[in-house]
Write a structure and sequence with these properties.
By secondary structure, this protein is an alpha/beta fold. It contains 13 helices and seven strands. β6 and β7 form a beta hairpin.
Length: 307
C-alpha cells in the first residue's frame, strides 16, 4: 500500500477539524470520508491511552486476527452507527446508502491474498467505504482519500511512516474559543484537562512538522474561516490537486451545509462567530486558559488574542 494516497486530518476537540474536513468535501479530486474516520482499535495501549480515547488513535491490530476481525476491530463509531442503526445516529437526516456488511466483504476481498499490514487494513477500509457507498456523489476524478480523527496528530508519525505518499494536516484554533465551545457539551472536560490536551496536540504538531517538513502541514482555523481557499491552497499544492471553488463552503457528499453542526460543535465558521465564542468566557477563565496554554500561544500567534 506504499502508493496509496491518503490525507489524514487531526485537531484537538472544537479546533475546527470537522470544519476543515467539510470544506475539503466538495473537491473533485478527493474521496472525503463522510464522518469522523475513527480508525482506532481497543488494542491501542500506550502512554497516551489514558489521555485520549482510543477510537481516535492510529489503529493497532492483533497478530493472529482474520480480515473480518480486523474490520470489526476498527471502532468507526459514527460510520457504523449511521449504517447499522440510523434511527439513533445524529446524522440520520442525511441520506447515506451504505450496507456495513457489504463494506466488510469488500474490505476482506481487498486484504486477502496480500501481506497483512496496518497500512493495508487502513487503505482497504477507505476503499471499501467508497465502493459500498451507493449514493456517493462521484466526480470521477477522485484519487486522494481523506480521513479525519480528533487528536490524531499525536500519531501523525505513524500515519506518515505507514503511507510514504501520505500527508497529514493538523488544524489549530485559539484555545479560548475552543474551550468555550467544549463547555457546551453535556459533560465538558475541566479547563485544565482540556487545555492540557490542546497543548499536547500543538507539541506533537510542531515536532512532526520538524521531522516530516514536506508532508506534515499545519493550518489555523482562524485563517480557514477568513479565507478557506487561500488557507488551504498550500495543502492542495502539496497534494497536486489544485485549489477548487468548493473549498469556499462546507459540504457533505457535495451538498452545501448551512452549518457544520452536527459534524462539529462549530456551527457557523466565521471570524466574527469565532471571536464572539471566545468572549463568552469570564475574565477568570480567560486568564486560566492563558496560563495553562503557556508558550504554545506565542508559537501560534495567539499571545495577544485579547490585546
Amino acid at each position: 500500500m506504499s502508493d496509496f494516497e491518503l490525507l489524514m486530518i487531526g485537531a484537538m476537540y472544537e479546533n475546527g477539524g470537522n470544519t476543515t474536513h467539510r470544506l475539503l468535501d466538495g473537491h473533485p479530486r478527493l474521496f472525503v470520508y463522510p464522518f469522523e474516520s475513527q480508525l482506532g482499535t481497543r488494542n491501542v495501549v500506550d502512554h497516551l491511552a489514558s489521555t485520549f480515547p482510543v477510537k481516535y488513535r492510529w489503529p493497532v491490530f492483533t497478530l493472529g486476527a482474520s480480515a473480518e476481525q480486523d474490520y470489526r476491530a476498527i471502532i468507526d463509531e459514527e460510520g457504523k452507527v449511521r449504517a447499522r442503526t440510523p434511527h439513533v445516529s445524529k446524522f440520520r437526516d442525511h441520506p447515506f446508502d451504505l450496507d456495513d456488511d457489504e463494506r466488510l466483504r469488500i474490505f476482506a476481498r481487498e486484504v486477502e491474498g496480500g501481506p497483512r499490514s496496518r497500512a493495508g487494513n487502513v487503505a482497504a477500509f477507505f476503499k471499501a467505504t467508497f465502493e459500498a457507498w451507493k449514493d456517493f456523489d462521484r466526480s470521477g476524478e477522485e484519487d486522494w482519500h481523506v480521513g479525519y480523527s480528533p487528536i490524531l496528530v499525536v500519531d501523525a508519525d505513524k500515519v506518515l511512516d505507514d503511507f510514504p505518499n501520505g500527508h497529514f494536516l493538523h488544524v489549530v484554533r485559539n484555545p479560548w474559543s475552543a474551550y468555550a465551545d467544549t463547555k457546551k457539551r453535556p459533560v465538558p472536560l475541566p479547563l485544565s484537562t482540556y487545555v492540557l490536551g490542546w497543548a499536547l496536540n500543538q507539541h506533537f504538531a510542531m515536532l512532526w512538522k520538524e521531522l516530516y517538513p514536506d508532508r506534515m502541514h499545519i493550518v489555523q482555523t482562524e485563517d480557514v474561516m477568513a479565507d478557506p481557499k487561500t488557507a488551504l491552497a498550500p495543502l492542495c499544492d502539496a497534494l497536486g490537486i489544485g485549489v477548487h471553488e468548493a473549498l469556499e463552503r462546507p459540504s457533505w457528499n457535495g451538498k452545501v451545509l448551512e452549518q457544520v453542526y452536527p459534524w462539529g460543535t462549530i456551527r457557523t465558521p466565521t471570524p466574527e462567530a469565532n471571536r464572539a465564542t471566545a468572549e463568552e468566557l469570564s475574565a477568570e477563565e480567560r486568564d486560566a486558559v492563558q496560563t495553562h496554554a503557556g508558550p504554545y500561544l506565542e508559537a501560534f500567534g495567539y499571545g495577544d488574542f485579547f490585546g
